[in-house]
Amino acid sequence: MFQQRNPATGETGDSFPELDADAIEQRIARAAAAYAEWRLTPVAERAALLSAIGDRFEANRDRLAAIATFEMGKTLGSAKAEVDKCIAAFRHYAEHGPAMLEERRIDLGDGKAAAARWYPLGPVLAIMPWNFPYWQVVRFMAPTLLAGNVGLLKHASNVPGTAQAIEDMVREAGGADGLFQNLHIPSSAVGAIIDDPRVAAVTLTGSEGAGIQVAERAGRNLKKVVLELGGSDPFIVMPSADIEQAARVAVTARIQNAGQSCICAKRMIVHADVYDRFRERFLAGMKAVRVGDPTADGTDMGPLSSEQGLKDIREQVERAKAAGATVSSVGDAPDGPGWYYPPTVLEDVPLDEEIAREEFFGPVAMLFRAADIDEAIRIANDVPFGLGSSIWTTDAAEQERLTRDLEAGMVAINAMLASDPKAPFGGVKRSGHGRELSSHGLHEFMNLKTVMLDQASPAATE
């Protein structure tokens, strides 16, 4: 049984029954049957369905946001913004996706030609996390459906209502039976689904450990897999930067979603010449964050999503202190029920300690001093992750150097890193592989088929 539980109050909500083996089999069979028809559906009709799903999200915006806030504790304002982002993704792929699927002609010389065409693969299993419970799903779902594939969703166990609501939106928009199905299943049931020959591919957003397990299982089955895993993103500040703005954005980048985001800025790496100025403003900003009821106006940050998450972040901070780090700033968190943790800044974290390379999935920032750009790059790259990064400098040469040398899949220049349906999203190193969003995300789960054209056909000479 999957039970809703409010991380701000401990209050329970609806419960959802766990699927048994027979029910899972029925859903996979429905997915296979739906794919047999959906793959032949004209692209324009697929795009029309995406538009209709976006309309359902828009019509249910407030209700969908309230479900996410109740289940995982994000502020109501950020939950509404997340739903809006989903709507934008559906409309982006509905409008621009068909052009991304147009064939590409290739001149082979000597009057010969070929075509590169995109075709779907089949049912795609998505294993998704709770931190952005709508957006994480939609950024896989929208391109998957447009491609002619169908979706099977294994969502995080603490957001069962969100998972069900997404399936409801597809059905209400006119999606065929089996086109997109939510699976209320434990993690232990995932392996058998990956093994099933009717499931063509797997995508996972989650922890490094979960990514390793899924990649191993998919590899044994020679199935395509896309992984978006953890991150310990650097936020590099150089002397030419607007320090006031950089410090303000750094606070937002660290405490957004209570620090529970793979692309949150987690390590502030600041040039020695401006370290003290940045530090003063950043610490003041972290102390001023308003932590409390996520449904209340004016709240900047709600609770962590789970009691285990709270235990984990407390344990990491204690290990950092034991290694020699200094707690330089601690904001306020409400007393009473709820899994709240105050915004916290750690300084003097020894670079040779493992804790300096870990991901803090909560509102804890590490602040490092760098003597020059070379040291800033060394500190930034000295982690197993390579998801995103943010660089703050107005020097064009520094911008080019940092963009080139940072080991990351994404770089934001003088801005907070954020995902966008129009831009590819993903990382390198132990942050995973493959890309989501944009045309690259659309093509990840498609068969790029080369067609050597019949030279006698009029179509070959157009």
The radius of gyration over CA amounts to 23 Å
* Mean pLDDT over all positions: 97
Counting DSSP H or I runs of 4 or more residues, the number of helices is 14
Strand coverage percent: 15-25%
List the uncertain runs.
none
Query: Can you list the strand order of the major beta sheet?
Result: 12-13-14-11-10-16-17
CATH topology of the largest domain: Aldehyde Dehydrogenase, Chain A, domain 1
Number of E-state strands: 20
EC number: 1.2.1.16, 1.2.1.20, 1.2.1.79
Organism: Sphingomonas jejuensis
Protein name: Succinate-semialdehyde dehydrogenase/glutarate-semialdehyde dehydrogenase
Enzyme class: oxidoreductase
Task: Give a nutshell description of this structure.
This is Succinate-semialdehyde dehydrogenase/glutarate-semialdehyde dehydrogenase. By secondary structure, this protein is an alpha/beta fold.
Q: How would you sum up this structure, described in words?
A:
It is an enzyme of class 1 (oxidoreductase). Belongs to the aldehyde dehydrogenase family. The protein is an alpha/beta fold. The protein has two domains: 2-229 and 431-452, 3-Layer(aba) Sandwich (Aldehyde Dehydrogenase, Chain A, domain 1), CATH 3.40.605.10; 233-413, Aldehyde Dehydrogenase, Chain A, domain 2. It is 40% helix and 20% strand. It is built from 14 helices and 20 strands. The chain has helices spanning 21-38, 43-59, 61-72, 76-100, 135-147, 160-172, 190-195, 208-220, 243-255, 275-287, 307-322, 373-381, 396-405, 438-444; strands at residues 2-5, 12-16, 104-109, 112-120, 123-127, 150-154, 180-182, 201-205, 224-228, 233-237, 265-271, 326-330, 344-347, 364-370, 385-386, 390-392, 412-413, 428-429, 432-433, 446-452. Strands 12-13-14-11-10-16-17 form a seven-stranded mixed beta sheet, sandwiched between helices. Strands 7-6-5-8-9-19 form a six-stranded mixed beta sheet, sandwiched between helices. Strands 3-4-20 form a three-stranded antiparallel beta sheet. Helix 5 (135-147) crosses helix 14. It is globular and about 70 Å long. The N and C termini lie far apart (59 Å). The model has no long low-confidence stretch (mean pLDDT 97).
